[in-house]
Automatic annotation (TrEMBL):
It comes from Adineta ricciae. The chain crosses the membrane at residues 46-71, 552-574, 580-601, 638-658, 670-688, 695-716, 728-759. It is a multi-pass membrane protein. One of its GO terms (molecular function) is ATPase-coupled intramembrane lipid transporter activity. The active site is at residue 111. Its EC number is 7.6.2.1. Residues 517-771 form the P-type ATPase C-terminal domain. ATP binds at residues 111-113, 199, 240, 262, 296, 376-378, 465, 471, 494-495. This is Phospholipid-transporting ATPase. InterPro entries: ATPase_P-typ_cyto_dom_N, ATPase_P-typ_P_site, ATPase_P-typ_TM_dom_sf, HAD-like_sf, HAD_sf, P-type_ATPase_IV, P_typ_ATPase, P_typ_ATPase_c. It holds the Pfam family Cation_ATPase. Coiled coil: none annotated. Its main location: membrane. Its cofactor is Mg(2+).
Amino acid sequence: MCLIIAVCSAFWEYRTGSRFRAYLPWEMFISSNAQTGAIQMAALKFFSYVILLNTVVPISLYISIEFIHFLQSKWIDWDMRMYYEPSNIQAQARTASLNEELGQIQYIFSDKTGTLTQNVMTFKKCSIRGKLYGDVGSDKSYVRQDSHFVWNDRNLIDAIEQNNDDDINHFFILLALCHTVMTEEMDGKITYQAQSPDENALVTAARAFGFEFMSRTQSSITGRFRNQVQTFDLLNILDFNNYRKRMSVIIQNQGKIILYCKGADSVIKQRLASSESDIMAVTDDHLHKVATEGLRTLCLAWKELNEGEYRKWAKQLKLATTSMQNREEQIDKLYEDIEKNMKLLGMTAIEDKLQDGVPECIEKLTRAQIKIWMLTGDKIETAENVGYSCRLLTNEMMIHKIDVDTEDEVANALERFRVDIEKMNRPQSYSLLITGSALLHALSDGLKLTFLELSTQCKAVICCRVTPLQKAQVVELIMKNQQVITLAIGDGANDVSMIQKAHIGVGISGQEGRQAVLASDYSIGQFRYLERLLLVHGRWSYIRISKFLRYFFYKNFAFTFCQFWFAFYCGFSAQTIFDPFFVTTYNIFFTTCPVLVLGVLDQDISANHSISRPHLYTAGQKDQYFNRKVFIECATHGLITSCIIFFFSYLCLCFTTLPSGTPVTDVQSFGFMVATILVIVVNTENAIEMWYWSGIYIFILFGTITLHFIFHFIMYSTALRLNLKINYAYVGVAQICLGNLTFWLTLILICAILILPAIAREFFRMRFMPNETDRARLIQKFCVRGKKNAVTPMDRELRQRTASVRSTSSGYAFSQEKGFGAMITSGTLRTKSTEKTHSS
């Protein structure tokens, strides 16, 4: 616009302005040459109109958006439907600038333990030297010391009471000693502070069976076994990490040095003595059996060490820990050397139940065309079973697994997967399960695009045994190549990198502290609240901010184009058609409040209807409400509005005279008429845009229009001029115009020309071309129940779960962070109330 005005100004100054310099003199620094002076004047007019027409994007736009963002975030904070009463946790928006992106999510990356599951572990079954316990139901429940622990198999209780099986003793002593749990005395009772819920469950179970861990120092562990207090010398803690997948302790008692080890079945198998193959085969069957139930498992082993052999190994370990080169590698090698030829004790099976509402939440998010990827540190079998339980996987899906270790094998597996997909007409019926070792190669430069192409065609993807770094790399791969809005959700410190990498991070306040919450943009108490966060608050926020921007640009284009048209009637002098006070207050008093209410309170359908119709969420994913096309339509609408208001007002006033015969053709009256009609039209357009008319909105809408008349009546009154002694050009304009019949007839005519077509357009669209939102609003308004569609394969896979053959491999339960062994043996961590605990 400024460029057009500058060009037109150059022609006008050259042909007309240069001849009237006696009346409209040029500045002293302007050349007297008509052609050169016209160009110089045009350049000055360009910058003058840059200042005058800056109302297209005023500063109030930024302030209004921030105000809307703030209140939208408060709706999340105040939503009691997302309040988790058991933990007294309220949903919290930790940022106010991402609310509308919650309505545009296309990928969700979720942790499993503590996010989809409760992270409250329960000891359910165990296998000791080939005999499975906990698999037999009984009318009598065994409860001891811990009222939360229930055991229904009397056979194990009888075996412990008989005290004639050393393997059972070693099994529970291992559970009581092989860990990094700290104790704390509260109300005369020992409580456990464990690094992970898995360890807490194992130590609690051992206590319930009569093998109680009581306290520890940096060099000893004390326990009460069969009502006898025993203290063991703690020689070493061979700590857990993501590569070892196991932990061990070396203790000494009554002259015997014993190594206890627990870890994943895959690594324990490799370190057993050859004589244990038969027992391992039986235990494998038990592992497979409990894995079908989705239980998390650990294998337990032990060995007695020769004192001379141990002293030699301990000396080497001491040298390795003080080495300045390759310290970690040397330590790991020594750990490997001593953790060999062990004797299998058995396995444990821990249940981690799904959180309430997780399957229903995932079902609705899937129907909203959101792809959900599970990124977990558990084994592929455990993740698969949980995937079925939470309806991320269904029986109609073709599940493809990639569990290989080399780059060539991964490339071959991906190529076979591509062939399978090409044979199927429905690639969305596939799901992909990939392990961390295979993902390491799949994310390499040579294979990551192939992996991206295939994985994005799948309906569900589960990445197992992945590290925190790999979680962040997967999120980054999708963000950089797919150009979609992503969300990551987790509850622990190992999810922080993923949460920070995604566009939006959601933290769950769970059992693993608040690291994820502190790193997140939004925090909730349970995974199921993600449904309401996205389908209600996210969707509403996106619609509101889109309609706000759409209307805001429309009203400002209409306002600015009026100035643009007036430039052709004022010799491009940068004179404003409006009163300067009106220019200042247009975006503050006369149009802002209704659009703010639209951006804060508007809603197409209620929250319950939004949740029950997840398919409406796709509008945000496709950016239907505000895009380049919508912006052009807003600008065009504003252009047409300004044309009709300006030129119709001009034509109506050209030949208007007062009863006294005085013509009403002054620029002040013209400007007041244009301003009044503009305020009424744009606010009425706002009312048409508004779906949810409340008492507050109606009051603000009519109050804004009334304020315009009151403001100008006072500003243009003669009393103000007399009292303040101000010679103001607009004094008396309001009284003259408002008392003129032509003014009111022109106002009614222009409003009818602009508003009636808008109403007719909306009526025609909703009557003959309704979209999904229109249908949903109609159903809500008239309580019409939508007809049930024919059952499709998609419906069946979301509603039905038929019997299926699942993987029978075991899951692996353990903390995914490095343990506290080094801190315990160095004395950094100490048990509270140790002496008092011993005396008890």
